[in-house]
Design goal:
The complex is a heterodimer.
Chain A (H helix, E strand, L loop, with lengths): L12 E4 L6 H11 L3 E8 L4 H10 L3 E4 L7 H15 L3 E4 L12 H13 L3 E6 L3 H10 L3 E4 L13 H10 L4 E5 L5 H9 L4 E4 L1 H4 L4 H20 L22
Parallel strand pairs in A: 1-2, 1-8, 2-3, 4-5, 5-6, 6-7, 7-8
Chain B lengths: L1 E4 L2 E4 L5 H7 L8 E4 L2 E3 L14 E9 L2
Parallel strand pairs in B: 1-5
Antiparallel strand pairs in B: 1-2, 3-4, 3-5
Chain lengths: ~250, ~60
C-alpha cells in the first residue's frame, strides 16, 4: 500500500485552512469531515500568527506547510526551511509558481527546489502537473509523493485531463499521488480516488461553499466511496450493451 | 542602525538578531526568521550580527491551501 513518507491516513482527504468565513467555521469543517491533514503557510508576523498556530495545533491533525506564492527555487527553499523549524515537520508542500494567471508550476524551479530539499532531509510533496517527464525528474530528485493538479488552483473545474492523469497514475505505480488543486465538487474527489489516486487536497471548494462544514463532510464521504471503489476493483468498460439478467431460462411467450 | 523589517524601515540598537527581535517586540513570539533572503535558525540568532540596510523577514503561521 502506498503511504505518505511512512504515514498512512485514515481518510484520503487533505484540507486547506484558508478562505473560510471565520476560524470557527474552519474548525467545524475539520471536525465534521475528520480530514487528517491540514495545509498551512508562513507569512509576515502581524500579530495573528500565535492564535492561528494554537488553533491548528488544536485540530490534532498532520500539518502540511506550503511554499505558496514562491516564484523561484531559492524563495521556496528558504520558505521550506523556515516552515520546518516553525511547524516542526519535514513535510513540505512544494509550490514553485511559474505563471501568475494559471498558477501553473514552474517545472524547472520545482525540480531544482525538490533536489535541494530532498537532499536536506525534507519529505517533499511537489505541486506538479500531469507531465510524466517532470514526474520522473521529481522522483529522481527523491520525491516519494507527487501532487498533480486536477485543474488550476481555485478554479473548481475538476479533473481537466483525464487521459494525462490516468497515464501518470499508471506510469508510477509505487509513488503515492495526491490530486491537488482545481477540485470543485465531491464527485471530482470520488473520481480521483476511483482512478487510483491516493488522496485529494482541496481548500476553496469547501471554504467557499455556503455551508463549509457540510461540504467538507460531503467530500469526506466521496473520498471514502472513491477509495473503497478503487480497492474493490472497478469493472471494465464496454462499447456494447450486455444484459445483466440471465438470458437462459427466459420464458417463450 | 536602520534595517528593513518585513518590508518596513526600522531603527534598531541591538547588534545581534536575537536581541533585535526582543527590541522589536517579538521576544516571546514564536517566529521564523530570514536575513537577506537566507534562513536563520532560532539557535543561530545569537551569533547573527546585523548590519545597516539588512533585510529581515519575521514570519509566523498563517492560513494556507
Amino acid at each position: 500500500m502506498r503511504d505518505f513518507y511512512g504515514t498512512t491516513l485514515p481518510l484520503p482527504l487533505m484540507l486547506g485552512t484558508a478562505r473560510y468565513p471565520s476560524p470557527a467555521v474552519m474548525e467545524a469543517a475539520f471536525r465534521q469531515s475528520a480530514a487528517p491533514v491540514a495545509t498551512v503557510s508562513l507569512r509576515r508576523e502581524q500579530g495573528a500568527g500565535q492564535a492561528f498556530w494554537d488553533m491548528v495545533r488544536g485540530l490534532g491533525v498532520h500539518l502540511l506547510p506550503n511554499t505558496a506564492g514562491c516564484h523561484s527555487a531559492r524563495e521556496a527553499i528558504t520558505t521550506a526551511q523556515m516552515a520546518r523549524e516553525y511547524f516542526g515537520t519535514n513535510w513540505i508542500k512544494l509550490e514553485v509558481i511559474g505563471h501568475a494567471d494559471t498558477l501553473q508550476p514552474d517545472p524547472f524551479g520545482l525540480v531544482e527546489a525538490a533536489e535541494a530539499l530532498c537532499a536536506d532531509g525534507f519529505e517533499v510533496f511537489p505541486y506538479t502537473t500531469e507531465d510524466q517527464v517532470l514526474a520522473a525528474r521529481l522522483v529522481d530528485a527523491g520525491c516519494r509523493v507527487l501532487m498533480p493538479w486536477g485543474a488550476p488552483i481555485g478554479s473548481g473545474l475538476g479533473l481537466n485531463n483525464l487521459h494525462g492523469l490516468r497515464s501518470l497514475r499508471a506510469a508510477f505505480p509505487d509513488v503515492a499521488m495526491v490530486i491537488d488543486a482545481g477540485l470543485g465538487l465531491p464527485s471530482h474527489a470520488a473520481q480521483a480516488l476511483e482512478m487510483g489516486f491516493d488522496a485529494v487536497l482541496l481548500n476553496t471548494a469547501v471554504a467557499e461553499a455556503r455551508d463549509p462544514a457540510a461540504m467538507a463532510e460531503a467530500f469526506a464521504l466521496a473520498c471514502r466511496a472513491g477509495a473503497l471503489a478503487a480497492a474493490s476493483g472497478p469493472m471494465g468498460q464496454r462499447d456494447m450493451a450486455v444484459p445483466s439478467t440471465p438470458v437462459i431460462g427466459k420464458a417463450w411467450l | 542602525m536602520k534595517i528593513e523589517v518585513n518590508g518596513e524601515t526600522r531603527e534598531v540598537a541591538a547588534a545581534q538578531l536575537d536581541a533585535a527581535l526582543v527590541e522589536l517586540g517579538w521576544g516571546e513570539a514564536k517566529v521564523a526568521t530570514a536575513l537577506n533572503g537566507s534562513f536563520v535558525p532560532a539557535g543561530a540568532r545569537g551569533a547573527t550580527t546585523l548590519s545597516d540596510g539588512d533585510r529581515l523577514e519575521v514570519l509566523s503561521a498563517m492560513q494556507g491551501g
